[in-house]
Amino acid sequence: MTKRTPIIIGNWKTNKKAHEVNQFLEEVQGKLPDARDVQVGIAAQDIFLHEMVKDANSLELPLGIFAENVYWADEGSYTGETSPAALADIGVSGSIIGHYERRKLFKETNGSVGLKVSASLRNGLTPIVAIAEDTTRYNPDDVEMAPLTEIAVALAGVDKAVADRIVIAYEPAWAIGAAEAPSLEVIEHAARVIRNSLAILFSQDVADKIRIQYGGSVTPENAKGILGLEDIDGLLIGRASLEPAAFLNMVQDALEG
Ligand code: PGA
Hints:
Helix content is about 40%, strand content about 15%. It has helices at about 20-25, 45-60, 85-90, 100-105, 110-120, 140-155, 185-200, 205-210, 225, 245-255, and strands at about 5-10, 40-45, 65, 95, 125-130, 165-170, 210-215, 235. It has an 8-stranded parallel β-barrel with strand order 1-2-3-4-5-6-7-8, surrounded by 5 helices. The longest helix has 18 residues, at about 185-200.
């Protein structure tokens, strides 16, 4: 079986002020595992990223700093967008791409997701591609169809030789910001459908190397069970990543898993 390094990413969304960002980084100092055992990262608002990279370096944190979105052109006249080349230049590790909130609120499509994935790979950034079923509640048919369509359209242009650098985050729309996560059976089933889709698109060998995260109402209470699933290799954590203690708790679960 292919060994995949667990990847735990906090998605801070549009939360925290500068002093709170700094406080969080100081509080996790000396408490994060070796990146070879668990890859840990925080995705934050663009305005904080450069300072966070510098702080992570000076505090010697094994912590990747991620953007929550990225544009597909390296430079040019695209007012308000962030260049993947500029993110790479300041030492950012990667970006979440196609989060459900961006698809819903900012009309992102699988087409734009695909361009952003290619631009990230070209610039050495890790793309965390969010795949969601756009429904308000669990529907077994969507678990078959949505990942297939999203992956086929969003990743069709990706060079197979570098496809194993992609991370997929399975985040059902109905579980984001909700009261609880889906059952372990639903999560494992979806992750398996996603891995099969990746195998059809690339190859079984590449699909076995791509890490699949689960995201949507992850908490310190349910993280361990989710991380124990065969096809799940990590977590994309929203609300529960804002507190250092809770975040560290889930990172520890990944280390022990
Ligand atoms: P949540 O958000 O953990 O607060 O549900 C997850 C996400 O949207 O990435």
